[in-house]
Amino acid sequence: MQTKKHSGFIAIIGRPNVGKSTFLNQVIGEKIAIMSDKAQTTRNKIQGIYTTDDTQIVFIDTPGIHKPHSRLGDFMVESALSTLNEVDAVVFMVNATEKKGRGDEFIIKRLKQVKQPIFLVINKIDKIHPDALLGIVDSYRKDLDFAEVYPISALQGINCPELVSAISNVLPEGPQFYPDDQVTDHPERFIAGELIREQVLDLTHEEVPHSVAVIVERIRRENEEKVLVQATIIVERSSQKGILIGKGGKMLKTIGTRARKEIEAMLGDKIYLELWVKVQPNWKDKKADLQALGYKQ
Ligand code: GDP
Ligand code: K
Ligand code: MG
């Protein structure tokens, strides 16, 4: 994975049926459709990953923010709010064909506590007369300051590339978080990554700081008995890489053996673990974001 120009996390929020999944399908492609309606958990969920040569946008959902009747309570709302203040920007999607409703008010109330830039996206403009647009925009603007306002049709793709490019422009320069071909989140990848990271920290003590990250590039069944797991440990300096590899590769081998046992226990399968170590200097800045997003278990 090479370093990308702009990368970051975008929370996409809006009441049910405003067109969030349709939008992600439009910008990311068909593959995403299979996971769009999974049950919500308390964990922030990756809805889709948009990757080009110079951009990676990770769209996430924050369950607590748009559930007025949720019985999960304050914890959900609190964790959603803290996430919204960690992402690079928030996309608030509304429906051009419906009046602002209770669900929207619920979200707006919470967005008032958010400091990150908020994009107001008015979807389904293919179904309204252009003259109606200004009134809709005003009805939201009177409650909240928006960084930008985009009328779109997620279904027809109208103004979607423009919105994606505006989003890219607010993203900081940073590393690519996920492989090019990954469009969704597989929780076992992150858990496998954490199990490897745990061994790294255990075995190196203070020599390798906590800024170490692990990206699991692939979990794939090779045959009936074995699953292949390929992962990269990312450090900030080449001295740290040296420590992790160790004399004659001894340290990396120990990390691998221990992590393999942990991952086997998690997956209930024999695995073949391939580990690499890579230096990526600007990783640390982004690590806080990942933790905020719930990837540190
Ligand atoms: P979500 O619940 O926010 O993910 O909404 P969906 O993406 O599932 O969309 C809900 C419904 O609205 C579906 O029937 C979509 O086809 C429809 N829809 C989404 N975007 C548009 C749009 O831009 N124009 C029109 N006419 N319909 C749309
Ligand atoms: K839906
Ligand atoms: Mg959806």
TrEMBL record:
Residue numbers spanned by region G4: 123-126
Region (G2): 40-44
Gene3D superfamilies: 3.30.300.20, P-loop containing nucleotide triphosphate hydrolases
Annotated signal sequence range: none
All copies of domain KH type-2, residue ranges: 196-281
Membrane topology: Peripheral membrane protein
Annotated region (G5), positions in chain: 152-154
Subcellular location: Cytoplasm; Cell membrane
Annotated segments matching region G1: 14-21
UniProt main location, coarse: cytoplasm
GO molecular function: GTP binding; GTPase activity; ribosomal small subunit binding; small ribosomal subunit rRNA binding
UniProt: GTP binding residues: 14-21, 61-65, 123-126
Renumbered residue ranges of the record's region G3: 61-64
Gene Ontology BP terms: ribosomal small subunit assembly
Keywords, in A-Z order: Cell membrane, Cytoplasm, GTP-binding, Membrane, Nucleotide-binding, Ribosome biogenesis, RNA-binding, rRNA-binding
PROSITE patterns listed in its UniProt record: G_ERA, KH_TYPE_2
Function: An essential GTPase that binds both GDP and GTP, with rapid nucleotide exchange. Plays a role in 16S rRNA processing and 30S ribosomal subunit biogenesis and possibly also in cell cycle regulation and energy metabolism.
Protein family according to the UniProt entry: Belongs to the TRAFAC class TrmE-Era-EngA-EngB-Septin-like GTPase superfamily. Era GTPase family.
Protein name: GTPase Era
Gene: era
